[in-house]
Specification:
The chain is of the alpha+beta class. It has 2 domains: about 80 residues, Phosphorylase Kinase, domain 1 (2-Layer Sandwich), CATH 3.30.200.20; about 90 residues, Transferase(Phosphotransferase) domain 1 (Transferase(Phosphotransferase), domain 1), CATH 1.10.510.10. The strands form 3 sheets. A 6-stranded antiparallel β-sheet has the order 1-2-3-4-6-5. A 3-stranded antiparallel β-sheet has the order 7-9-10. A two-stranded antiparallel sheet has the order 8-11. The longest helix has 20 residues.
Length: about 180
Amino acid sequence: MTQNPALLNNRYALQKRIGKGGMAVVYEARDLMLERTVAIKILRETFSKDPAFRERFRQEAKAAANLAHPNIVTIHDFGFDAGRLFIIMEHIPGTDLKSIIEERGRFSVNEAIPILVQTSAGVGYAHRAGLVHCDIKPHNILITPDQRVKVTDFGIARALASIQPDEKIEVVWGSPAILLA
């Protein structure tokens, strides 16, 4: 177990916080072994403590790691260190669509179409691979400086095979405010 809280698995050096949500905090970090910049999502302690959640998260990380598409953020690694679950992802320079919309307002149709096409390509690929994202929203759509779209946060994705037609919904997956908008 790593003693330095800014170092995970004696390999990933946390550099700065780049985002946070209800379930996790995301950091820019340095992979000391491969000498590259990565993004690390560290789950909050309440989620990391739950053995059933840890197993589900491991399975979902494994499924998401098998997605290889230019419009999906690549998953590099997954782990548990110092009581914290984490997932190592491709670091994407740029910003999320939510921040862009807040800064500049609405997009014209001609500006929105390439974003929608690339987002749909990534999500469609995941669906064909049997994975449902469950939380598509502007915050989970990253835009690079050269206007490439990368869908991120497959952390609560579910395997299509695990969803039953008569499933009783007791948990709301995703972001309810976005789902109801």
